[in-house]
Design brief:
alpha/beta, 5-stranded mixed β-sheet, 4-stranded mixed β-sheet, globular
């Protein structure tokens, strides 16, 4: 049995609409969909139909909160496997859960941190997140993906057994020291290497994507809506955001754009 787990939040509900449309229309091989939101945001999921909704711990820093919720997915799903899907992922025709398997085992794509450092990629920062928790410096970064990842549900249970205070730990570290899929990937390779297939993306090309992941920060722009329409998807749900939430989102986007503009002009936005 395969469970799909999507941890979303109020600003991504419009994206969730498209994601769920694509799962039902294009993705084969799953048995249930579980959608999680922070405590107090359950009303934003009022348009769900067959999907099951669950409440997740609320964090002041939701960037970390959504990561912790994923590592706690085993508390809610029924499947032997859990496919993690981001709200801004749209699956393409012909997509199948088997796309995430190699030789019948979940595929985890990885790259050496030395490669990331040589290329100047920002993802090198996640090495410290794993080292801080495990006390060992990892060789590999495990976030090579297209917005979806398949794991044995039992791996999540084993991780919680190893770190029963993981949620409290996450609340006490800065967000640069927490990276859920680097933690989970490292744990899987250290503790359960025979249950997964690990692929070095320096040596083997990444698997062809069976989905399209969008950039959610600017919301559903006219250009994005046109691209989604070309894929056969149109919005179904009215906005669930309050006027205050909409104003906060606009202010956040305007601030980010201003910082980007100042940076492009050679000025320090801070």
């Amino acid at each position: 049995m395969v469970s799909i787990y999507i941890r979303t939040y109020k600003r991504d509900i419009a994206w969730l609409d498209f994601c769920l449309q694509s799962i039902h229309r294009n993705l084969k091989g799953w048995d249930e969909i579980v959608v999680g939101v922070p405590e107090g945001q359950e009303h934003h999921l009022r348009y769900l139909e067959g999907e099951r909704k669950v409440s997740c711990p609320r964090f002041r820093e939701d960037y970390v909160g959504q990561q912790v919720a994923k590592l706690q997915a085993h508390r809610h799903v029924r499947g032997d496997y859990v496919l993690f899907v981001d709200s801004d992922v749209v699956f393409l025709p012909g997509a199948d859960v088997r796309d995430f398997l190699q030789d019948g085992k979940p595929l985890i794509e990885k790259v050496r941190y030395t490669t990331l450092a040589r290329l100047g990629e920002a993802a090198v920062k996640w090495q410290a997140a794993v080292e801080h928790l495990f006390g060992e410096k990892p060789e590999w970064e495990y976030m090579r993906s297209h917005g979806s990842r398949l794991y044995h549900t039992s791996t999540l249970r084993a991780l919680e057994a190893r770190f029963p205070e993981l949620e409290a730990y996450a609340r006490g570290v800065p967000k640069r020291l927490f990276s859920e899929f680097n933690i989970l990937g490292y744990f899987a390779e250290q503790q359960e290497p025979d249950r997964y297939r690990f692929a070095d993306t320096d040596a083997v090309p990444m698997r062809a994507p069976c989905s399209r992941q969008f950039w959610t920060v600017d919301g559903l722009t006219p250009a994005t809506l046109a691209e989604l329409a070309a894929l056969g998807f149109r919005p179904r749900w009215p906005s669930t955001l309050s006027p205050l939430d909409k104003a906060k989102r606009w202010l956040s986007q305007a601030t980010r754009h201003a910082k980007q503009w100042l940076k492009s002009r050679g000025r320090n936005p801070s």
